[in-house]
Amino acid sequence: MVLVRRDTPYPHWEFSDPGSGDLLRLVPERGGLVSGWRSGGRERLYLDLKRFSDPALTVRGGIPVLFPICGGLTGDTLSLSQGHFPMPQHGFARDQPWRMGPLQDGRGVVLELASCGATLAHYPFQFLLQLEVRLARGVLDIQAAVHNQGEEAMPFSFGLHPYFAIADLATARFEGLPACGLDQRTGQNCDTGQQLDLLAEGVDLLSGPAETVRLLDPSAGAALELETTAPLDLVVIWSDPPRPMACLEPWTAPRGSLATGERRLVLQPGSSQRLRTTYRVLA
User: What's the number of domains the chain is made of?
Assistant: First the structure.
């Protein structure tokens, strides 16, 4: 496995497996972003490069990290006993610079985000968030560790927001989801199949828990699957046409969890939570 710095098509780090030809592109200073995953001779992730080139805009593409919330809160405000704090959609992790280094086993990299003045303005907790990203032939394994380094109980949610390149949204399909889900645009329960029929028009579907979900793109002859591990086992499907992509996202909790308490995770002082998800190329 090799980790090198590249300047094109944008400045990034490249982690590659010479044996399989698989590689990752990583931009730690842009939210610990995995910006590319090439496997089986094709790029699996979508990246809006024009938008990515403007640091003032949120990234549309790659695998953004969602922490300490998934989705949004009413009024973009996190209300706690310590006070009220501004909290952007999907949290702040995707907007902060991360540290990065090679894993000791040589199979990937570790990305780290630690609490600092910028994070404390949104979230009054001392924490360390680590992401171990491992590459194997046709496999991308991501393990997160959240550490509470403070003296108070720390509530949080965590998710990943991968954008997968799709040749034709009209023929793409998902398999393995429960029959019923939640339309996050309306907040209403819905039929999963009926929602997925609207993929080419735009969907925002919360589903799960689900163990294995497959994304099939017949027009490209491509397929992959998401394997979840509780509590990172809710699945969000999101499309934003005309962008040629669909998101297959593992979340620990639905929108508003830190306010409602639904599936909210809480770490006691000095404790940690490990989370894992795996993507596998099928074709």
Answer: 1
